[in-house]
Amino acid sequence: MRIVVLTKPVPDTASAGERLGPDKRLDRAAVPAVVNANDEYAIEAALKLVEQHGGEVALLSMAPPSAPETLRKALAMGAASGTHVTDKTLEGSDTLSTARTLAAAAKGLEFDLLFAGADTSDGGAGVVPAGVAALLGLPYLSYAAKIEPDPEKRSVRVHRISPTGFDVLKAPMPALIVCTQALGEPRYPSLKGIMAARSKEIATHGVGDIEADGAALGGQAATTEVVESQKPPARAATQVIREPAPEAAKTVVAFLAERRII
Amino acid sequence: MPGLWVIGQPTADGSLAHISAEVATLGRHLADQAGTDVTGIVVAADPKKAADELATFVPRVLAVTEPAAADHAWATIAAERIAALAKEQKPDYILLGADPDGRDVAGVLSVLLDWGVLVNATAVTWTDGGPTVEMSVFGGKLITSSRFTNGVGIITVRPNVISAEAADTPGKVETATVDGELSLPPVKVVDRISEAGAAAPIEEARVIVAGGRGIGGPDGFKIVEELAEALGGAVGATRAAVDSGWINYSQQIGQTGKIVKPQLYLALGISGAIQHKVGMQTAETIVAVNRDPDAPIAEFADLLVVGDLFEVAPAILAELRSRSG
Q1: Which of residues 253-292 of B touch A (CB under 8 A)?
Q2: Which of B35, B82, B136, B148 lies 20 to 30 Å from A171 when distance is taken between CA atoms?
Q3: Domains and CATH numbers, chain A
């Protein structure tokens, strides 16, 4: 079984340095990049499945030229190879253009399952995977808490998180599955994995190398633009209470009453 | 008909999802500002109940009966029908919830219509002949305003952006038919599993009482639940508490969980690591109980009680009860 995981390098949230550039786009050079946290769950789930059923995990990423550095971390977890779509013209892509680019690049890859993380920590849209599935005409199974492929029957069952529990979905493969944290914690790369990742192949493609069917891609095709950005109003200073519990509780409740919360 | 469309998302029992009532209210206000029409769209195996509910918020609702939605995943099917209807009736903007179903529909609609999407709106206003969409990005570090560049678009709206509020006069429900085979592969729903005690969605809660590592174990969540109940709120948790198996992933707040913006966020035994902070720091009021006065949450809480949560939380509960009693 071959699983391709859509993997996005995102600004490291912990660096707290994310900012927009003068063009009002995320300044991706300003902050160190990490593998998007939800994508790590997708990679982990994919690795567990190929360990169980045989096969290979590959990564697909649309990202700036520096991405291979970040993708090596995902390869160190155990993915076998990567495809990196990068092109100056893709800067400033909106979600629609991103879905088109990833779908076009995925067309050139072989896979039984295409995985994506539930959303990214930078844009946070959570709409790209559904678009990719629709463009590729793949069954779309989202918000997975459990994934059970049956390679012989060429089908896959997914527990989709619903407001009241789970919907159990079933579809033929190939299919696109959106992965969540409920699938289990990602592994830490081993030293051996880190060494091995250095020599794994990351194929680089420009826009000219993928079959985008003439669809407009990149910043020039963007359908949305940021017109203004501002810092949120600063929070007032923290009021610190160091009283014994009963008095502290009275203070808390009085505070809530004053703010008309209770 | 040009104008605004709001998508009525049906729940498992066929009624209207709460988020859709909010989105419809927002759509109506926006249409008033724009001087245009707002139409609700419901696609379901039996759209009647959700369509009737949606009509309390907007003047006109189109109900599309789609039998396949009965035992197939809803979003892709709904998106295909909405897209076909939109190509025929040409609305300018489509609004839906920024929840899992809404996001799924938005993603499919976007590529079927070749329309852009502005996501996770925290406010939408009508300016210069189009919507301006405000969103909170980088975990609340920045607020951006964005617009569509070509006069059409899809907007996903976060829960709690607006209170659902019925229109003065109820609207009309009309039946709409969309012909044609579905071209995207429908995904079969083979079973629906209800989890015992599945909690109310935390994104919609006005009050959230959340527990972190300091809660110490599943039993520790009892006091969290009791306080949540006393405050009429929902229970939330950090990733540490979820990873430890103390509480369901559905209650997790933060980077890989849910983003919430309640009136009150009461954090018990939560240090306030960045991955959690990005999910809750836009809460109107943050009250924290923590042993460590130097925990990161001390930097952004409005009120911090330094102390043992197992002493302070029951004391708050007792105080609330004596107040209401």
Answers
A1: 255-257, 259, 263-264, 274-275, 278, 282, 285-287
A2: B82
A3: 2-221 (3.40.50.620)
At A48-96, the pLDDT tens digits run 999 999 999 999 999 999 999 999 999 999 999 999 999 999 999 999 9
pLDDT band at A164 (very low <50, low <70, confident <90, very high): confident
Tokens found for residue B276 = 């959690």
Q: Does B188 map to a domain? A: no
B window 194-213, beta carbon within 8 A of A: 194-195, 198, 201, 207
- Residues B170 and B278 placed together within one structural domain of the fold: no
Instruction: Determine, yes or no, domain membership for B166.
Output: yes
pTM surpassing 0.90?
Answer: yes
* Residue A143 tokens, joined: 């918000």
CB distance A142–B75 less than 8 Å?
A: yes
Instruction: Tell me what ipTM this predicted complex has.
Output: 0.94
What is the number of other CB atoms lying within 10 angstroms of the CB of residue B141? 17
CB B270 within 8 Å of CB B247: no
Q: Is A224–B287 a contact, with Cβ atoms under 8 angstroms apart?
A: no
Q: What are phi and psi of A214, to 5 degrees?
A: 75, 0
Check whether residue B232 and residue B117 sit in a common domain: no
CA–CA distance, B241 with B211 (Å, rounded to integer): 7
Residue B160 maps to which CATH number? Answer: 3.40.50.620
Cβ-proximal residues to B137 (8 Å cutoff; 6+ apart), any chain: A122, A123, A124, B143, B144
